[in-house]
Design a protein that fits this description.
By secondary structure, the protein is an alpha/beta fold. It is elongated, with a radius of gyration of 24 Å. The strands form three sheets. It has a five-stranded mixed sheet, sandwiched between helices. It has a five-stranded mixed sheet with strand order 9-8-10-7-11, with helices on one face. It has a two-stranded antiparallel sheet with strand order 1-2. A hairpin with a 2-residue loop joins strand 1 and strand 2. 42% of the residues lie in helices and 22% in strands.
Length: 308
């Protein structure tokens, strides 16, 4: 058994057990891939893969267990590299942030600006996707930190830090019936609704609030991007249910925003990273900037530009 064989197993996992793609990634011929697999399985005394002819079609029960260990070994290898690079220069490196559109546009600009002032030698790459995809990016080691509201609680392999709590708001044109008078879930449920796609930006809390009152929502448009929702609200398609922080008093002055903090439970944005993944010092300091920005957000004495 050698590290090249273990690396081959990892590459096969990433290429969906495609021998040709794995050979290309390893810069060897396909016959050499097959030979190394045969030697490895012979040493273990049992096959790791289900086969149909020469094609690998799946993992045997032993293969599943071995792949778990290969993932652990690969993480250790990545940690060794990160620790060494951190030791040599903790102000240089690359930070991969996985997040949603809402967090990227409305929360992250301030902490990223402050972080860049302290760490100009760190390159930042931002990956925007759904919460499920963000978690996958962490496990695939394509992201160091994920910042989102939904789904991360369900993964036992992650370290979670609560970042900040926020509420939803309803937005509508200025002449809309809901722009005045008391706003209730019952009144909201009588209008077409535009809100986030399932799994994004507190959508689960929105549905829970209405369902708890026995109300059905008529969601005619769902999107991951708040700006898309506001665009179609302006066209008169319905009422938008968005994150309150995504309402800009200046840019959205043609819309009325109604605070829903008394109707829909607050949502909590969280910071997540792999439990056994070594975070360089600059990544740890970036998390500190996120938490500091969250404190400023929480302690701000400026009233939200929303109406009840």
């Amino acid at each position: 058994m050698n590290l090249s064989q273990l690396e081959l197993l990892r590459v096969l996992q990433e290429t969906d057990l495609n021998l040709s793609k794995a050979a290309d990634r390893m810069h060897i011929v396909q016959s050499a891939v097959s030979r190394q697999l045969q030697l490895f399985e012979s040493e273990l005394g049992s096959p790791l893969f289900e086969r149909k002819g020469k094609k690998l079609t799946g993992l045997t029960p032993l293969g599943v267990r071995i792949m778990d260990e290969v993932s652990t070994i690969n993480m250790a290898k990545n940690n060794i590299r990160a620790i060494a690079a951190d030791y040599l220069d903790s102000h240089q490196g690359t930070l991969h942030i996985a997040t949603t559109h809402t967090q990227a546009k409305y929360f992250l600009p301030t902490p990223i600006r402050r972080f860049r002032e302290k760490y100009p030698g760190v390159r930042i790459y931002m990956i925007q996707a759904s919460p499920e995809q963000l978690i996958d990016q962490l496990h695939a080691h394509k992201a160091d930190i994920a910042i989102c509201t939904e789904k991360v609680d369900e993964d036992a392999g992650l370290v979670l830090k609560k970042c900040y709590a926020w509420h939803h708001a309803a937005v509508m044109p200025q002449d809309h019936p809901l722009s005045t008078g008391e706003i209730t879930l019952e009144r909201l449920a009588t209008f077409p609704i535009l809100t986030y796609s399932f799994g994004f930006t507190g959508r689960s809390n929105i549905e829970h609030a209405f369902r708890s009152e026995g109300l059905e929502l008529d969601i005619i448009l769902a999107a991951a991007d708040t700006d898309v929702i506001k665009t179609y609200v302006r066209l008169g398609l319905g009422v938008g249910l968005i994150a309150g922080m995504a309402y800009d008093a200046l840019a959205d002055r043609d819309l009325v925003a109604r605070d829903l903090s008394h109707l829909i439970p607050h949502s909590t944005t969280k910071i997540a990273y792999l439990k056994h993944n070594y975070l360089p010092l600059y990544s740890q300091h970036f998390i500190e900037e996120l938490l500091s920005a969250a404190d400023l957000h929480r302690n701000s004495k400026e009233p939200l530009p929303l109406q009840r």
